[in-house]
Amino acid sequence: MAKNTDLTGMKIPQHVAIIMDGNGRWAKKRLMPRNVGHVQGAKTVEQICEDADSLGIKYLTVYAFSTENWNRPESEVGAIMKLLRNYLKDCIKRANGNNMKVRVIGERSRLSEDIRQRIAELEEASKDNTGLNFTIALNYGSRDEIIRAVKSMAQDYKDGNIDETEITEDKFSAYLDTADIPDPDLLIRTSGEERLSNYLLWQLAYTEFYFSDVLWPDFDKKELINAIVKYNGRDRRFGGVREE
Q1: How many domains does the chain divide into?
Q2: Is residue 201 part of a domain?
Q3: Which position among 4, 6, 21, 183 bears the catalytic label?
Q4: Has 128 been annotated as catalytic?
Q5: pTM score, whole prediction
Q6: Which one from 69, 96, 129, 198 is the annotated catalytic residue?
Q7: d(CA 66, CA 137)
Q8: What is the pLDDT of residues 53-95, one digit of tens each?
């Protein structure tokens, strides 16, 4: 559908969140190790960042590794972490070359020290870039994020920094990992799965969903445009009623 689609006059979602699913199945279909799928999936991430920027998307957030992914076979987790190290090694040059601001959300303490250091270097090096805001959810789980936010808010209350009259949705959002990022307008999940998998539960309250049968390594600009076209067919009322 998207090959000759003209997006002129269409509303481009400001923030797109993606659950990148299907790397292992992509490899299995080709009789390859699952790790090969993760490598190809990482290449797809790089291309989709460029495609999103070219389409006018301002924020892109991808689910790279969840708090539950540690339960995968040790060999696969190790391969993913090795791939992450390689990705982060080249990411500063790539981010600055594309004027892309990169940040990582999630609980970092379980990550190796060298990975945490590379993340800090990447965020510092790209913080002043003015192009695509690219966020990587790494060792991220939304329930974990919300619990951490509640604990932080409770400590501020205990210390007298806030009182109960200040506790609002906006105030609570400021304690989340995504504090300075607008909520997603569009969520895309690939590979035919239709669940949130503990991803951005608070932030997705009024987000439009697009489920694609395409496995993540095969996801491309055409399918991204298909999602935008579907998004433009939705009537976003945020709990209100349509004016006749």
Answers
A1: 1
A2: yes
A3: 21
A4: no
A5: 0.92
A6: 69
A7: 8
A8: 999 999 999 999 999 999 999 999 999 999 999 889 889 999 9
